[in-house]
Amino acid sequence: MTAEPAGVPTEAASLEAAVRLLTDARSEIARADSKAAVLAGALGVTVGVLSGFLSARRWRPWDLSGFSSVLWWAGACCVALALLSLLMAILPRYRPSSWAPGQPLTYFADTRRASSQGLLAQALADTARSPADALLVSLAETSRIVADKHRWIRIGLAAFFLSTVFFPVAGLLG
């Protein structure tokens, strides 16, 4: 048995790191979903309060001057974009399963596909034989999902921020 050179990780250490990163990525997906849900709720409350306030005063956006009207409708578009973006962050986004016999299972759609083909036991055995392959595919896919969710949250926050600038300026300029 030859000793591993210093600083070169063993396969077990690499698997352990992949499992840790996969766990972290899954936790980050849950946190991103929670952030987006809270922000979407806050956006809904803000729009509701603003609508109620303006309705009580019998205010209408078409009473604004030309430039103010443009700012108002830009703000409305930003609110719509913010809501859409936050909902896109919450939306589950798994790729279609490309699992084929002989490949390891990497997530639930692969398991469903193997089961529907009557090959679940064999697929589980294949996965047990090559756990690193399954982990690497899962880690890459989960990391992609995290990046997508964070991108949508950033877009939603930027759009919401712009609306908080456009609406008051439109109201002040009248």
UniProtKB/TrEMBL annotation:
Membrane-spanning segments: 36-55, 70-91, 152-173
InterPro entries assigned: PycTM_dom
Localisation per UniProt entry: Cell membrane
Magnesium recorded as keyword: no
Keywords per UniProt: Antiviral defense, Cell membrane, Membrane, Nucleotide-binding, Transmembrane, Transmembrane helix
Domain spans labelled Pycsar effector protein: 18-170
Top-rank taxon: Bacteria
Name the UniProt record assigns to this protein: Pycsar effector protein domain-containing protein
